[in-house]
Task: inverse folding
């Protein structure tokens, strides 16, 4: 994994050049596009601070990245910043997820939800178009710890879902139970599977066993697609675990979600969808005649400034800087776990992730609430509280929390 770090000056030059290659609503005659620069009363272009902020400058110029720019010609109006989006996608696909150049498609989606739904949409259409599959012959499999956007998608795409239960303590998918479910699906004449593999669940940071499950599907002769949901862990796990199974060299995985507005601290609206070449076409909306380069995405119009923001963050760190930052956060998480161990407090944690999920029985609710830990559920049945070690979760903040914990243990005993 290697991408170069750019200095602030280099970043500014690349973005300035990109903006100059875009159509410019200010100095060109553009009569037909239903877009313009941001409202000039509120967002005046000559504000001095814009010179030093490539992101804000792009935001004010307001390029529309509608469509998919790794495929076909793409909308030519904003080619400059679209090229930055392509560079960003190439870093994510080729460096983080080990794709070969030109063997992937993707785009910056509104978030992890959209990227996950885009995958479901493509695979459903694939099975329908390639195999004339009926909806009842397709099943969507996902672990019980999967993000709720997957069941949301089942409703939208009218697909049947099957939950894979996990072990209460290890949060690992129960493979014996899965084998039985698959036998039942076979008996019900389900032939095609769409599976979500978590690259870090939202609540536990647990990582699903791609190869074990892929082997099981293969052994039981299902045709299947696996989507890696790295909305939470996509910018963490590939950097912390050199033996990650989540990458395009693994033939079981066909597409990925990443979310730059989580760990990468980019503005909201920066999900990333990546898929092997040859599949984006199944989400083509042929009626999108007015979009030059056609539309293969769920979203339609979207902000080019979002792609620039994510690209700037990744280029500011470079692969070495980002790897170092992730190591620091994972180490801080390990130190938190050591302190919990010393106090006899039990929790779940994947050793390569920065989430610690504590048994509710081991920590008083008022303390969890005081420090804004997030509960697994809000209905009075909560069994877990989680801590996510992000940039703002400093050692000092963790120490304050830990300092209050031992006293509670003494009261409990
Ligand atoms: C946050 C998250 C999502 C949804 O992402 P949004 O950006 O909120 O739409 C999907 N999957 C996982 C694992 C997540 O953590």
Result:
């Amino acid at each position: 994994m290697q991408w170069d770090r750019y200095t602030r000056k280099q970043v500014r030059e690349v973005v300035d050049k990109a903006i100059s290659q875009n159509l410019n609503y200010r100095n060109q005659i553009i009569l037909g596009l239903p877009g313009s620069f941001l409202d000039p009363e509120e967002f005046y272009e000559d504000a001095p601070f814009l010179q030093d902020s490539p992101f804000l400058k792009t935001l004010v110029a307001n390029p529309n990245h509608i469509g998919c720019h790794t495929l076909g010609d793409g909308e030519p109006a904003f080619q400059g910043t679209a090229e930055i989006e392509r560079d960003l996608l190439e870093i994510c696909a080729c460096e983080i997820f080990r794709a070969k150049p030109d063997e992937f498609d993707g785009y910056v989606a509104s978030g992890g939800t959209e990227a996950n739904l885009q995958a479901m949409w493509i695979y459903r259409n694939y099975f329908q178009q390639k195999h004339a599959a009926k909806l009842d012959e397709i099943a969507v499999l996902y672990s019980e710890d999967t993000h709720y956007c997957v069941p949301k998608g089942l409703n939208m795409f009218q697909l049947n879902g099957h939950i894979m239960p996990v072990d209460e303590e290890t949060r690992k998918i129960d493979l014996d139970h899965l084998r039985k479910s698959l036998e039942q699906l076979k008996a019900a004449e389900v032939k095609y599977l769409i599976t979500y593999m978590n690259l870090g669940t939202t609540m536990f940071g647990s990582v699903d066993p791609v190869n074990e499950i892929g082997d099981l599907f293969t052994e039981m002769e299902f045709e299947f697609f696996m989507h890696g949901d790295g909305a939470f862990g996509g910018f963490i796990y590939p950097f912390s675990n050199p033996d990650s199974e989540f990458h395009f060299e693994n033939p079981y995985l066909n597409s990925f979600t990443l979310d730059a507005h989580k760990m990468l601290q980019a503005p909201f609206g920066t999900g990333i969808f990546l898929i092997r070449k040859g599949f984006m076409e199944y989400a083509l909306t042929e009626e999108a005649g007015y979009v030059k380069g056609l539309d293969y995405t769920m979203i339609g119009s979207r902000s080019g400034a979002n792609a620039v923001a994510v690209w700037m963050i990744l280029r500011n760190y470079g692969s070495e800087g980002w790897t170092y930052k992730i190591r620091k956060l994972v180490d801080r998480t390990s130190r938190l776990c050591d302190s919990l161990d010393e106090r006899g407090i039990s929790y779940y944690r994947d050793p390569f992730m920065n989430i610690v999920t504590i048994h509710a029985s081991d920590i008083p609710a008022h303390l969890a609430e005081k420090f804004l830990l997030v509960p697994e559920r809000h209905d009075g049945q909560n069994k877990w509280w989680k801590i996510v070690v992000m940039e703002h979760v400093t050692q000092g903040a963790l120490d304050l929390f830990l300092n209050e914990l031992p006293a509670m243990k003494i009261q409990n005993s």
In short: Residues 111-113, 116, 147, 149, 198, 201-202, 229, 231-232, 259, 271 surround pyridoxal-5'-phosphate (CB under 6 Å). The mean pLDDT is 94.
